[in-house]
């Protein structure tokens, strides 16, 4: 999968807050942390409930409730979001995670 496809799935500059042109830019974004808004954007783009997507993140829903939409997630959560964006496009081209959750292994 290309960096562009991952960035498109995460919301591009509008949601990410910066232009990502290559893998180094994407790695820098992961280190900075992506915004909480990417969770909703990815869930909406896959036509799933954001709570379902949160089940695959290494953070509790209670902890995520403390974040504002523009707040940045930790590096590890950001890395998982990028992985989910990549997997959701490769394994679930028609949306949804429930039907193939075994494809997501960490």
Question: How would you sum up this structure, described in words?
Answer:
This protein is an all-alpha fold. It contains seven helices and no strands. Helix 1 (3-10) packs across helix 7 (75-91) and helix 3 (23-32) crosses helix 7. The longest helix has 17 residues, at 75-91. The chain is globular and about 35 Å long.
Number of strands: 0
Count of alpha and pi helical runs: 7
The 3D shape can be described as globular
Q: What is the terminal separation in angstroms?
A: 19 Å
Q: What is the share of helical residues?
A: 55-70%
Unreliable stretches (pLDDT < 50, length at least 5) are 95-106
> How are helices and strands ordered from N to C?
HHHHHHH
For the sheet with most strands, the description reads: none
Strand content: under 5%
The radius of gyration over CA amounts to 13 Å
Mean pLDDT equals 86
* Class per helix and strand makeup: mainly alpha
Layout of SSEs?
Blueprint: H1 3-10, H2 12-16, H3 23-32, H4 37-45, H5 50-54, H6 61-65, H7 75-91
Can you give me a brief rundown of this structure?
The protein is mostly helical.
List the defining traits of the structure above.
106 residues; mainly alpha
């Amino acid at each position: 999968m290309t960096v562009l496809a991952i960035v498109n799935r995460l919301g591009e500059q509008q949601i990410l807050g910066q232009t990502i042109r290559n893998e180094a830019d994407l790695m820098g974004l992961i280190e900075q942390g992506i915004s909480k808004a990417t969770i909703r954007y990815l869930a909406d783009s896959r036509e799933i409930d954001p709570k379902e997507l949160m089940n695959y993140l290494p953070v509790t829903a209670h902890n995520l409730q403390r974040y504002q939409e523009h707040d940045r997630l930790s590096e590890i959560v950001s890395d998982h979001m990028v992985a989910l964006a990549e997997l959701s496009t490769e394994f679930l081209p028609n949306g949804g995670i429930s039907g193939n959750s075994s494809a997501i292994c960490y």
